[in-house]
Amino acid sequence: MPDTPPARRGPYAKTAERRLEIIRTATAVFASYGYRGGSLRQIAAQLGLPLTTLMHHFPTKSALLEAVLDQEDAADPDAEGRARHDGFMPMVLGIVERNLGRRELVRMFSVVSAEATAPDHEAHEWLLRRYAAVTVDYGRMIAFDQAEGRIRSRRDPVQLAGLVVSAWEGVQIRWLADGTDPVAAMRTLLAALLDPAD
Amino acid sequence: MPDTPPARRGPYAKTAERRLEIIRTATAVFASYGYRGGSLRQIAAQLGLPLTTLMHHFPTKSALLEAVLDQEDAADPDAEGRARHDGFMPMVLGIVERNLGRRELVRMFSVVSAEATAPDHEAHEWLLRRYAAVTVDYGRMIAFDQAEGRIRSRRDPVQLAGLVVSAWEGVQIRWLADGTDPVAAMRTLLAALLDPAD
């Protein structure tokens, strides 16, 4: 019965929708102005909401930042499964390709990450945790592929993981700036670093 | 006669010094807050100068941005000479090493570059020109080393140059964030990409 509203509509669902809407707009504002340059006032204005309504959902700018940064990891819980099944390199290239359709999200991460390199930045701890976690996860996936013979480089897998993550960051910034194909760039970089079997 | 003031002190020298001081402070402010998040007012306050004095030297924020961005290239006119003499890879590693002592300058470039990927950003054209120029210059240096037998990769030199520039950007951000050695990272990346003869 397509006319029946879905059962989950109600005050809670409305709150969830409003939160998502705020997160989406905050992503765009932080992408343009950075976290430090963006303001709750600006985000509320862009949504046509009173500031007090926005602050009912996110009482501080840093609470909103946390929600904005969280959307990424929640979106991809099965990277490791894909890496085991298809290989580390195809898994990474799949994310690079998916990111082609998420330009403002990628820009937000690039801008906030660059800002957050400063030790006194509100997202500095988040950035360090993210680098550490991704490096450990990717290191494990690369070690798996080395054992399987899919990756022939004998370098330390954690070191390789760190280089992949760093190079990727730069490749995405270049893509955002002038459209240089990030899939082709990552394919060449990964092949040079990992020496894949095919 | 060490007590004699240098001949070039005078109103012009004072203006030049004041300009340099403003550029240095603007670099630090843009590194922390981004170009969009930083303001002339903030820069003047940090220098203990009236805003009108700052605006006498730089009438607009974008005039100041231009001066801030220009300081880099002016500082290294002979990269190509060093590349011809020592090789492309040692030349790049030399700059990476020199940048260890210029943390705030590197952070400013990282933050402003990420922001400036947006087509409506005041530094967008600068960023595109910079990528294009560096890629062409590095491509020429790589081609020279390929011809000399110092670089064994037979890939298109301009494509290699683009990958080096992108990977470097990410390596520097990682260094700024958590101190990961950028010289070691770039040495491994360059060796994997270029296949140097030694």
TrEMBL record, chains A, B:
Family annotation (Pfam families): TetR_N
Keyword list, A-Z: DNA-binding, Transcription, Transcription regulation
UniProt domain HTH tetR-type: residue ranges: 16-76
InterPro entries noted in UniProt: Homeodomain-like_sf, HTH-type_TetR-like_transc_reg, HTH_TetR, Tet_transcr_reg_TetR-rel_C_sf
GO MF: DNA-binding transcription factor activity; transcription cis-regulatory region binding
Binding region for DNA: 39-58
Protein's name in the database: TetR family transcriptional regulator
Organism of provenance: Microbacterium telephonicum
